[in-house]
Amino acid sequence: MILTRLGHAALLVETPSSRTLIDPGSFSSDWHALTDLDAVLVTHQHADHIDVNNIGAMLDANKGARVIVEEAVVEMLKERTVYPAVVGDTLTIEDLRIEIVGGQHALIHDRIPRVGNVGFILREEGGPNLFHPGDAYTTAPSGIDILALPLTAPWARVGMTADFANAVRPRKIIPIHDSIVSEAGRPIYMRMSRTVIDESITIDDPGLAEPYNVD
User: 2-213 maps to which CATH number?
Assistant: First the structure.
């Protein structure tokens, strides 16, 4: 499995037989020109996870891709053939088995309505697995190899991030959901995360658009 960070929460997941894009949001553009995708997955409706203004051209270039999205996103992409991501379902895309977990976005504030949110566990046949939780820390599956960890958000603080990472206890972590911090501030979050996340968990930090080989 090879992972490529494409900005904020967007990840490209490549296996010997498949290419899957997760959360093509408006905070990044590196995913705009992708081709040969087998699947596009969207965790929830917020613009930093689904860019409705630019996803159309990318989907036109990937007409064979299966598009699986949180239920509210179905209406947002109603002119496209998309499938709702139903919590508890498992589907197969080439050599990937994709499990859908979660259900609700993390609480930001009582005055802000909560929306749906799903997480995706991608299991490569004969290889490792990846958990992308979207915007929630509530589901902590066991046996995870790679956790795509939301580094910070309006709904999170460092203690919550660490508690979630320690609850999942993956072999490795790669940070995502980091576009809302400045270039100067991001190392502070990384340093604090390395301080409070269990030392048995490896935290890697591949650069943007740099393929990361999961071993």
Answer: 3.60.15.10
